[in-house]
Amino acid sequence: MFDDTSPWLRPDGQVMYFSSNRSGSYEIWRATWNGTDFGAPSLVSELSTVGFSRFPILTPDELVVYWAGGSGIMVASRATTADPFSNLTAVPELAGMNSSPDYISPDLCTIYGAARPADSTYIVRATRSP
Question: How far apart are the C-alpha atoms of 127 and 130, rounded to whole Å?
Answer without folding.
Answer: 9
